[in-house]
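Re-run requested by the PI after the first attempt was lost when the workstation crashed. Everything re-entered from the original request form. Ligand of interest: L-tyrosinamide.
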Amino acid sequence: MSEITTKPRTKVRVKTERPKLHKVILINDDYTPREFVVAILKAEFRMNEEQAYRVMITAHKRGACVVAVYAKDVAETKATRATDAGRAKGYPLMFTTEPEEEVCPSWQSAWTGIAWRLSVPRPQIPRS
Ligand code: TYC
């Protein structure tokens, strides 16, 4: 009688996934002065005057604007700090966070790798 012997698989393939990046989003309101929003963007998100103004005016016109993309904890900390800075002055300035949606996988993974390691914001490609 022939016997079939099977060998158990011993190698376990570990798939490591990089944590998803999170967007910090600036929400428009009718009360916070424009200059204050620009100052916060410069201080908390290390933007220059021109970048900060562009993000502020985009939020002002469209209702919201993505400020930058970070690892989850960094995004949440920065959004909280920036929102608190407004509240300390009595302004309703609001920064929120949300997970970044999947886009083109190769493009995404290239940036995810860099931004995740350095915790730096990804440059925003301005929409016309
Ligand atoms: N809308 C505000 C004003 O006219 C300025 C402003 C812009 C406030 C962007 C918040 O996220 C914001 N003073």
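Saved to the shared folder this time. Residues 26-30, 32-34, 37, 56, 59-60, 93 surround L-tyrosinamide (CB under 6 Å).
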